[in-house]
Write a structure and sequence with these properties.
The chain is of the alpha/beta class. It contains 13 helices and 14 strands. 37% of the residues lie in helices and 14% in strands. Strands 1-9-8-5-4-2-3 form a 7-stranded mixed sheet, with helices on both faces. The longest helix is centred in the last third of the chain and has 19 residues.
Amino acid sequence: MAPDGQMLATASAPNVYDSEPIPEAARAEIDRMLMSGDLFRYTAPADAPVALLESEFAALLGSHYALAVSSCSAALFLSLKALDLPRGAKVLIPAFTFAAVPSSVVHADCVPVLVEVGPNYRVDMADFARKLPDADAVMISHMRGHTSDMDAIMALCDAAGIPVIEDAAHSLGTVWGGRNIGTIGKVGCFSFQSYKLVNAGEGGIMVTDDPEIAARAIIMSGAYETNWKKHPGLSNSCAHWQNKLPLYNLRMQNLSAAVIRPQLPLVAERVEKGRAGHDRVAAVLNGSSYLVVPDPLGPEVRAPDSIQFNLKGDWTDQQALDFQAAAKRRGISVQVFGLSEGNARAFWNWQFLGEPPELPQTKEMLMRACDVRLPTRLTNAELDYIATAIVDAATEVRG
């Protein structure tokens, strides 16, 4: 109930949970494969749907090589293994990321080292510089599509000879200084999970310009015996690594590729719509005395499918929870990262890492940082409803 005793209307609240629709063009290919049973990526001698996806995605990003796998987590794991890091290698990651990122580091027999993140959701470069000398690799999560200072990160890492992996799960279509995110470090990893810009339910892909990294990842992804010959341009490197590396069997299957491929030509349109929708809502939220949407860094042109904002001023935990409840009554689910029970984006919940480190800046941010999905299919009226509901909820609690 609202404070005046009247029920708040939610009939017009938009559904933000449905994923991006699958184009009709995918259905004929899916039906063909179901009739033939041709689902394994290495059955066909050439031009299997997964192989075509890899070629098309590499062209889209401007990369030499792409490898489609079962998830973005699998891509992150394979990237670390392909770097041939020693057991126990230290990998710097932002403290604001999804639990799958430190999990991939642990899976690769490495040790995650968490770096502070500021109120703008980007890596704190002072803490990064302090911790870099002890690192063997860096995995930068562009969390929720927010790009950290890649110029500064690459300058420090290149000078120290430390490889960089980009976790670009949320950043397909984002550009930094004219370069596609995911192509700046040694490897870039992307997600096709349902809540990403391209929806396949599950799936991931990694891109690189390094033939040795590509070859090692191909072998370890599950290109057993001579199946690596179906990856063009890498025969010499793959032949060298055949039978010398373990097979983790993280391959993508053809059905997933058939769902993804017709969506790639839609990426540019979805990026444009997502940015326009985000900026429309952000303008309303920034007009409130109680909310603030951090600005992107100068070289960044984002491709958002959600919006993050901070509770501005002196909010108590209870007020933040009351705000969540007030927004929910209006039909809008707002997640305060640090106050949502068991949230996989709050570093103190990563109990598999042991005792959480002291990261006061990141913790302070997470306790007041909010998250709302904004699918690119939303209309302006639906975006306006979301923005107004969020501002009204904040005003109800603080006004």
